[in-house]
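worker-03 picked up job from queue 'complexes'. Input manifest follows; two sequence lines, order preserved.
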Amino acid sequence: MRDAVEMAGIVKIYGETGLKANDKVDLTLHKGEILCLAGENGAGKTTLMKVLYGMERPDSGTIRIDGKEVSIDTPLTASRLGIGMVHQHFMLIDDFSVEQNVTLGKEPLHYGLKYDAKAACEQVDKVIKNHHFSIEARQKVSSLAIGQKQQVEIVKMLYRDVEILILDEPTAVLTEQETEALFVTLRSLAERGKSLILITHKLHEIKAISNRVAIMRQGKMVGSFKTSEVSEQEIARLIMGQTVSLTVQRSITPQKQSDVMTFRHVSVFNHGRKTPVLDKISFSARSGEILGFAGVGGNGLAELEAVLSGQLPVTSGSVQLRNEDVSRLETAQLRKRGLAYIPADRLHTGCALAADVSENMIIDARDSFSRYQVLQREKIESHVERLLQTYQVKGSTRMPIGTLSGGNIQKVILAREIEQYRDYIVCCEPTWGLDVASSNFVYEQIMHLRSLGAAVLLISSNLDEILALSDRIVVLCRGAVVARLDENAVRQVTKEEMGNYMLGLKCQEKVHGQQA
Amino acid sequence: MDNRLERRHARTMRIMLGSVGMLTIIGISLAVLVALALLLSKTPWKTLRYFFIGPMQNTYYFGNMLNSAIPLIFGGLGVSLAMRAGSFNLGGEGQLYGGSFVATICALFLAPLGFFGAVVALVAGAFTGASLAGISGVLRMKWKTNELITSFLLSNAVVLVVNYLIAGPFMDPNTNLIATRTIPESFRLARILEPSNLSSALFIAIVAVMVIHFYLYKTKHGYELRMYGLNSNFATYGGIDPRRYQVIPIMLSGALYGLGGSLAIFGTYYACMKEFSAGMGWNGLAVALIAKFKPAAVIPAALFFAYIESGARSAMLHSDVTYEISSIVQSVVFFLVTSTVLQQIGATRRRSV
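worker-03 finished. Artifact:
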């Protein structure tokens, strides 16, 4: 029997940063099987699937569907070839009914003209009944639960006679019961001969659902394995890799250390939700050291960043900066107290793309560049000119920052925040999407700050980075602290162990209110 | 110093290339005008002559044209300022009309105070415009309502209320017009370029443009405002209080509308007539669009707009076309101004320089 999908030698380089997102990746999907595609954030899973679904063009490599070589340039071509994708964020129109959402773009028509609502309902109901879904064709999508909305997405694919179905982290938003129901559906689809690819990094789900598992790391395919032949621990080790691939020159820790930023039992609940996004987090960041926060995406790192930068109010607990309680303060007030902050989203938060480099550079120092409320042009220009040289930014003061490359934009942000820093700095995903040279530059700067006595809070989903840079590490899983590693432990911990903490297989301290 | 010269040179080049798109737009719209005249008029050349030369044929027409540009400058400036902060002020009609009305009433009551009274009345007019616009700003800040809708709805209501006040309690019984009493002589702005209507408010308008330009591009406050408009996440991240820039810019915008209307009363009309300002608010919006929300470009944009209007009026008086021809030319201009393709003519060249 021919394989459903055969991808060979796929290379995808993102032009802007020169980053190799996929490096000669091979992937085979057999007919009627469920394949899990696993790997860390940024390992290249999503890129590979986007290539298969026609959302990205590969730089080289071949794709065969049913043994025939094809070129997939748009999602439309992909869907003609019987490939469907369910995205992490649903693509549904809330005010439409289920049947309208499902048939959108492929509507049954009266005499080829008028939308045939009755036929649409019948056809959609047939698909729903065949696969035992819990929705009805006439329900409005806005009235459905999240798990049911996902069913609508799947029905949408089945209605289009999809043979190959890609699901991007389908369980990320589901409850336990909904996940269980989804798996029943997926198994029955596989039994009927459909071939499925699931992107996931939840180990117990890989074990529960898949026939085979393919693991990616840093843009390369590590290998494919029969799920029954590998243990969860082995999968975790393959995902994380064994060797720490990054080393950074580090100086001795300064002698005198004091607490700069202290969290005491900080919890955050999203509006109307019962489970916290941050669950009684406690830690303190000391001067002259780098405190690393590790975790898999969706486990509280983003929320921690928002709390630290004053964008997310805490529900309970206290945040102390030096000797002051700052848990109720917003960004503007924190800035006045010395917040320096490199945001994870550098393009939408870290800069205004249409404004020029100078204007971007002085945002948090604007008071010191104005006299009697009037900006001092000459002073700004020479200051920015100097920073551009010091940080080796390729660009000039009057260029819109959006015309710079990703690495240079990050350097501008870095320069600005390091200038602003007084005694602590929050760095979030500082090298995300950067090439090796730019990354190393960022690491040097962070180490330099540490030697100056800064308290660095490093939030990163890049495990290599965390292990290489941090003096101490806090690991978050499901919004709670699952492990704390002191200086000795950081030097001894293996990636496998870290992976076990991050993926929730192991827990160092008793998590409040949970048995895990 | 060399550096400075170079920068200035680069800036001149940028402005020149930037106006390539605008010149194309003006060129096309004039071509449309010629085509319309040839189609609709029995004496096309006479029509065109009056259209183009009419506004400049004597000081009376020329002065009136300049005078009609004054409220457009204030309106265009107001919309541009709000737009730089990312707020869309659609309430110009009501802010201008309400501001003029309050300024007129103040002038009537403050007659004995002379010059000081005139200043107070103008400030009151500007304040009225600012308050009306401010309501939309505060609603946006508190409840995230869309200021585009609230300012528009509020403005419509204000126009009706002012209509009632003029026709009712404040109507001057000694005239056939539906209008308030006329303001005292001592409050009226000096006329320049007699016998036309052109008043010295023109100078105030030019000063206003300079002040707003300075405010936006040279002051810290203006910098914060622009950063908020370009990317509110970035501004908040940089420690700028977002609430401030949801309210202040649209208030300033309303103040400019109110001041523009009040100056029209003090310089041209001398009494608040019912619906005297109908259309001025919308035209201010159109001027801001032509100027692409750049304060310095508001003056030429307002002059261009006033020129087309008075050209159409002159052609209508002296030949066989109707006033609507001006509306058609205006629509063509806006259509072209909002077309991104034409704007990019300048932009792409700029990049390759």
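worker-03 released lock.
Residues 346-353 of chain B have pLDDT under 50 and may be disordered.
The CA atoms of residues 142 and 268 of chain B lie 39 Å apart.
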